[in-house]
Amino acid sequence: MSAFAGSVPYSAGAVVLLLAATFIGFLIVGKHSLIDSTWGLLFAAVAIAAFACSSGHGDPVRRWLLLALPVIWGLRLAIHTGRRSIGKPEDPRYGKLVSKATGHQNLYALRTIYLLQGLLAFLISTPIQVGAFERGPVGPIGWVGAGVWCLGVFFETVGDHQMEAFRRNPANKGGIIETGLWRYTRHPNYFGDACVWWGIFAIAADHWPGVITIYAPILMTLLLTKGSGVRVLEGHLRDRPGWASYAARTSTFVPLPPRRGRPRDG
Fold first, then answer.
1. Which of 19, 144, 176, 264 has the lowest CB atom count within 10 Å?
2. How far apart are CA 109 and CA 136, in angstroms?
3. Burial class (CB within 10 angstroms; exposed 0-12, middle 13-18, buried 19+) of 98
4. Cα–Cα distance, 88 to 243 (Å, whole number)
5. pLDDT, tens digit, for every residue of 131-188?
6. Helical H runs in the chain?
7. Rounded to an integer, what distance in angstroms lies between the CA atom of residue 122 and that of residue 126?
8. Under 8 Å CB-to-CB from 159, ≥6 apart: which residues?
């Protein structure tokens, strides 16, 4: 426990340094949407810090899993969001948020965008921080978790690729993608994201005290479904032609066969 406690400032420091660099980037380019690419890197930074601090303490296999899986996920997400934002203006979400400031806009943005996301990333990454110090070997629950992580990365990567291909076709402008994974869930990338963090939690939950970090994947799932994920995105899509019929037959989150008859939520 003392070794874990000593690692917490390093994990928190890694988050703060990345957020500071991102905020400086905003001051240079004028886009708060840079934080979207930093989001994945925050978890990668925590994983690196936890791995370094847990040397000589945790089970080597678990330590390597909790280093490799978040770093792979975080780098993929950062590259994807970074490529998607090149040459584009500020994300309207951030413009709308900052417009609510009653005082200095930059200080308001620092609190509501950067520090808030940093706090969320630190809390959600606690299975990584705790699991890196667990001495017991990776058991069946942990390996199932690694499999769930693979499933999540598959849904995220394939879903993002299918969406990019759809958007590259000018004939699809303003339309709704209804093929591939998007035929079974309206948000394959968000579903995949949830699987990633339930998988990482399972790797830590093999042993105590990793079990008590269950709040982390629950928090991530709530953010994806009730917070800034599904709820916000679908608010922008409801007026698109074909959305109502697509939503009526396609599961909201968990992949399910397209339904017929009376609509129901997935």
1. 264
2. 42
3. middle
4. 25
5. 999 999 999 999 999 999 999 999 999 999 999 999 999 999 989 999 999 999 999 9
6. 2-29, 34-53, 60-85, 92-98, 105-109, 116-124, 126-131, 140-168, 188-204, 215-225, 230-237, 243-249
7. 7
8. 180, 181, 182, 188, 189, 192
